[in-house]
Specification:
The protein is an alpha/beta fold. Helix content is 37%, strand content 15%.
Length: 359
């Protein structure tokens, strides 16, 4: 088959790009289409193939301001010419699923999430409720929601990373879905016992819904050492007046990040996430996860075996969970059983089976 893979944008290597990397391993001759492409920010498997971009890739200041062009995204994704392909696989958390397929082309969409900033997290991203800015955002969001629902009907079959996301596909698009867990760890990865040091870890983009502010306040209160790895839009606010027991690192190579996973006493996951690859990565090194007890974490962390949940997004609730985790004697075999659900090999096999079922 002649295969096209669509990904929203190629501006860095994060969780969505880990999934894309595995999809391209399943279809090594596929052509790749996207809205924006920043050369040199991805791995060789992604960059060493034909990459076709929409007109948005020529817009000014795309490196830093690409998200500001959001109202143009539906038009841009529909401008991509996909004639002649037998299979289209879209990897979508924004508009990639909205491409226009040929009537005889099979379109399978792996949805990381429906657009969170116009659906379930609209009021978190845009809390302002009056004024000209509110009026403009309300109209743009209304248009994006209408387009999002309409374009969902161009997909033949939906895959998603968790049942938590699948329920939103059902709610907003009125479509059925199949859960295929993302490829978080290499095939046949063996969990080993590492000597744990007296610090806790967060690896995350800095965004409001990640609730890193909650973790900072909790560790300000208990005085335990916390290492923050990451960066993003809320950097300046979050890093202002950090206490001495909280350290921040940015731009670390992946190998160094994984060395911290190995040594951390616990991994803090305070936000409500669709899935969250980082908790699985932590488990792959035998590091327990202390997570907010809603969303995708409920499908990746095994309570009291590979981590604990805190029921409320409050400082006291998180602190109680940290103390509870410290009192548990975790077993390597439980971590192994958990991460075996999230291997690259299993992901690729499920993708290929889905294509075979629907072609």
């Amino acid at each position: 088959m002649k295969v096209a893979v669509i990904h929203d944008w190629l501006t860095g290597f994060r969780g969505g790009e880990v999934v894309l990397d595995a999809i391209l391993k399943a279809f090594p001759t596929a052509d790749l289409f996207t809205l924006f492409y920043s050369k040199g920010k991805l791995n060789a498997n992604i960059e060493n193939r034909k990459i076709f971009t929409a007109f948005t890739d020529k817009l000014p200041f795309k490196e830093k301001l690409y998200r500001n062009y959001l109202p143009l995204f539906p038009t841009a994704i529909e401008s991509l010419d996909l004639k002649g392909y037998d299979l289209i696989l879209s990897s979508s958390h924004c508009v990639a699923k909205g491409i226009i397929p040929h009537p005889n082309t099979l379109h399978i969409s792996y949805v990381h999430s429906p657009m969170r900033y116009v659906w379930d997290m609209y009021y978190d991203y845009f809390p302002q409720r009056s004024g000209l800015k509110f009026f403009i955002l309300q109209n743009i969001s209304n248009y994006l929601r209408s387009w999002d629902v309409t374009s969902a009907q161009r997909v033949d079959h939906f895959l998603c990373n968790s049942d938590f996301v699948g329920k939103r596909i059902k709610k907003y698009y009125r479509r059925d879905y199949q859960v295929v867990f993302p490829p978080c760890v290499p095939s046949k990865h063996k969990v080993q016992e590492f000597e744990k040091e007296d610090f806790y870890l967060i690896v995350s983009a800095f965004a409001p819904y990640k609730r890193l502010d909650l973790a900072i306040e909790a560790f300000r209160k208990n005085g335990k050492k916390l290492l923050l790895i990451g960066g993003g839009q809320t950097e300046k606010t979050l890093l202002r007046n950090l206490p001495s027991n909280i350290e921040w690192k940015k731009g670390l190579p992946r190998e160094e990040v994984h060395s911290y996973y190995k040594r951390a006493k616990g991994f803090i996951f305070p936000g409500l996430e669709d899935f969250g690859i980082t908790p699985v990565e932590a488990q792959s090194y035998g590091t327990p996860v202390i997570a907010f007890g809603q969303g995708g974490a409920l499908e990746t962390v095994v309570s009291k075996k590979t981590g604990v949940f805190f029921p409320e997004q409050t400082v006291d609730s998180l602190l109680s969970a940290v103390e509870e985790s410290d009192s548990i004697r975790y077993k390597t075999r439980d971590f192994q059983a958990s991460i075996d659900r999230f291997t690259e090999e299993k992901f690729i096999n499920e993708i290929l089976k889905s294509v075979d079922r629907h072609k």
